[in-house]
């Protein structure tokens, strides 16, 4: 299977770069594709696209609000994928959603690949139940990334590190997205990096340049979600969000000099 997501992240890491992966709720605004393009232009190594879901158990209030807004606009997975397929984005795209949406369509992973999305995160699928989805993703050329939390026991952590594709998603704190960044995430990222050579990205609660730099001290990079989505919900334009992401890129680059 080709490893478009992992290869791109490894390439960035090999060049001494702290990896930067921003999140965007698909369909949040009619011009949502413009945010993807601005992220790509301003330092993203990959982009996570949230496919809106009505009951997102892992998402905090900001991402929930974004999903609700997108759903009220009438967006569908099919419509979002059609828009992505027509867009020109030169970094890997990763879909994030919940298993109810995945199970609803037998061709889900193939549909992602056809739209140009090569990564998938399904947070409510645990590692010991992931094999069928992992097989479907692999057959479609999609890399299924698994999550690890600070409370994950060592044997299970090793299993996640072996089974994850693209990268390993380390959650900095128990809770939902937007929770305050915690040092426990740094310890988790360090443990994972001793278990795998696959890139390890730290997420949840990374809201400031200082948070991102601190997280990157123990991980290969960061995922930034709620901090960006809050600005979009408050009216931030694609160009403004591109500038915000460029600020994170600059801070991460300066920290490794």
Automatic annotation (TrEMBL):
Reaction(s) this enzyme catalyzes, per UniProt: (1S,2R)-1-C-(indol-3-yl)glycerol 3-phosphate + L-serine = D-glyceraldehyde 3-phosphate + L-tryptophan + H2O
Enzyme Commission number(s) of this protein: 4.2.1.20
A GO molecular-function descriptor: tryptophan synthase activity
EC class: lyase
Pfam families, per database record: Trp_syntA
Database matches in InterPro entries: Aldolase_TIM (IPR013785), RibuloseP-bd_barrel (IPR011060), Trp_synthase_alpha_AS (IPR018204), Trp_synthase_suA (IPR002028)
NCBIfam families xref list: trpA (TIGR00262)
Function: The alpha subunit is responsible for the aldol cleavage of indoleglycerol phosphate to indole and glyceraldehyde 3-phosphate.
Known partners and oligomeric status: Tetramer of two alpha and two beta chains.
Family that this chain belongs to: Belongs to the TrpA family.
Full protein name: Tryptophan synthase alpha chain
Organism: Actinoplanes sandaracinus
Lineage of source species: Bacteria, Bacillati, Actinomycetota, Actinomycetes, Micromonosporales
Gene: trpA
């Amino acid at each position: 299977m080709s490893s478009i997501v992992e290869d791109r992240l490894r390439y960035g890491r090999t060049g001494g770069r702290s990896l930067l992966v921003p999140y965007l709720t698909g369909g949040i605004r009619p011009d949502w594709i413009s945010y993807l393009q601005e992220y790509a232009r301003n330092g993203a190594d990959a982009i996570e696209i949230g496919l809106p879901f009505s009951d997102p158990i892992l998402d905090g209030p900001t991402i929930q609000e974004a999903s609700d807004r997108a759903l009220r606009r009438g967006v569908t997975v099919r419509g979002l994928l059609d828009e992505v397929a027509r867009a020109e984005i030169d970094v890997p795209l990763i879909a994030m959603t919940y298993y109810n949406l995945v199970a609803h369509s037998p061709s889900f992973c193939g549909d992602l690949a056809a739209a140009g999305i090569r990564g998938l995160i399904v947070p409510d699928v645990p590692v010991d139940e992931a094999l069928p989805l992992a097989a479907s993703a692999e057959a479609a050329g999609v890399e299924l990334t698994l999550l690890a939390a600070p409370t994950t026991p060592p044997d299970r952590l090793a299993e996640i590190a072996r089974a994850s594709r693209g990268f390993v998603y380390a959650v900095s704190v128990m809770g939902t997205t937007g929770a305050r960044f915690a040092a426990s995430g740094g310890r988790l990222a360090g443990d994972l990096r001793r278990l795998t050579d696959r890139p390890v990205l730290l997420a949840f609660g990374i809201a400031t340049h200082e948070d991102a730099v601190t997280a990157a001290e123990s991980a290969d990079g960061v995922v930034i979600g709620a901090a960006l989505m809050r600005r979009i919900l408050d009216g931030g334009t694609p160009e403004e969000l591109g500038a915000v992401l460029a600020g994170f890129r600059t801070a991460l680059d300066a920290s490794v000099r």
